Automatic annotation (TrEMBL):
Record CDD domains: TM_PBP2
Family that this chain belongs to: Belongs to the binding-protein-dependent transport system permease family.
Entry membrane topology: Multi-pass membrane protein
UniProt main location, coarse: membrane
Source organism: Uliginosibacterium sediminicola
Domain ABC transmembrane type-1: 107-338
Protein name: ABC transporter permease
Keyword Membrane set for record: yes
Length: 346
């Protein structure tokens, strides 16, 4: 009997994987097509960004032809997909480098910033959400809700500017613009692109300390938004669990409040929290534009902003593709973790 059931299970799994991959491919293709055609109708001329406004008409037409802008839009998109299948994202007008090279250079800085931000946001957001749920309607709950509302509503660039004024200009606790003090810039060999990791691997602890000083403030401010979101969702999930009958049963059995809250109720919201944290992390990776602008952080967000202002669609398309892959991957990881932690979904 088992030999008859097992092939069926394998075929169903293969079919499910095939459907998932098809959805991923269609999603990314649609994202690319939408970005491509919107970019082509934007009132920005990439040719002028290359030749300048003083170039003569013949030079303009030559570059216009070299970029393939004289072709119909569907042909331009087809050529782009052809190159993409060969791993070629084109060259960035801003730097003259391949887009893949530029993204590999700037993306680790954003990963470093977003990772510390999500650690901060999760480390504070989850306990605050649990605390608020266990004190529903009391002062503690109201304070957490106000903090979450402010963190979620106030623009992140305002927090960034206030942070620079208070902690950098006034108190002198934090670093200013950039990733490290100018005296240490370039002293560490680039291995992973993560400055903290590279400095630790090289044993350059002064550089490591300087990098910590520069990254702490933008990471905390960026993590404030995710902290507010995670705290709100944790509170909501916990309130739902604390009203369940099994919680009443656990309390009747004489279990301590700590055991009831953390060993029973909190364990049942872990699966939901995993998805929330994963999506929040993806949002930080692609939404760090304002913080990177305020702190002059040389990351992915700054690169994308500069490319948009320049009309560099090759760079923009590469960034959009990476953002799409990040979100799709995080969703797949969240689904996989669902099946690991919740047997009912298998």
């Amino acid at each position: 009997m088992s030999t008859l059931i097992l092939p069926g299970l394998n075929s169903r799994r293969l079919a499910a994987i095939g459907r998932r991959l098809t959805v991923v491919a269609v999603t990314l293709l649609g994202l690319l097509a939408l970005t491509f055609f919107i970019g082509r109708v934007m009132p920005l001329d990439p040719v002028l960004s290359i030749v300048g406004s003083d170039a003569d008409q013949s030079t303009y037409q030559q570059v216009y032809h070299q970029l393939g802008l004289d072709q119909p839009l569907y042909m331009q998109f087809a050529y782009y997909l052809r190159d993409l299948l060969h791993g070629d994202l084109g060259r960035a007008l801003m730097t003259g480098n391949p887009v893949t090279t530029d993204i590999a250079r700037v993306f680790p800085a954003t990963i470093e910033l977003a990772t510390l931000a999500i650690v901060f946001g999760t480390g504070l957001g989850v306990p605050l959400g649990v605390y608020a749920a266990t004190r529903r309607g009391r002062w503690g709950d109201q304070i957490v809700r106000v903090i979450s509302l402010c963190g979620y509503s106030v623009p992140v660039f305002w927090f960034g500017m206030m942070g620079l004024i208070v902690f950098y200009a006034w108190l002198g606790w934090a670093g200013g613009a950039g990733r490290v003090d100018l005296a240490y810039d370039g002293l560490v060999e680039r291995r992973t692109g993560l400055l903290l990791v590279d400095a630790a691997l090289a044993g350059e602890w002064e550089v490591f300390g300087s990098a910590i000083r520069f990254i702490t403030l933008p990471a905390c401010i960026l993590g404030l938004h995710s902290m507010a979101y995670i705290a709100r969702m944790t509170r909501s999930f916990m309130l739902n669990q604390l009203n369940q009958e099994y919680i009443i049963t656990a309390r009747v059995k004489g279990l301590s409040e700590f055991e009831v809250v953390w060993h029973h109720a909190f364990r049942n919201i872990l699966v939901q929290l995993l998805t929330i944290v994963a999506l929040a992390y993806g949002g930080l990776l692609e939404g760090a534009v304002l913080i990177e602008t305020v702190f002059a952080w040389p990351g992915f967000g700054s690169y994308l902003t500069s490319s948009l202002l320049l009309g560099d669609m090759n760079a923009v398309m590469g960034c959009v593709l990476l953002i799409g892959i990040i979100f799709v991957t995080l969703n797949l990881v969240a689904d996989a973790l669902y099946q690991v932690f919740d047997p009912r979904t298998r």
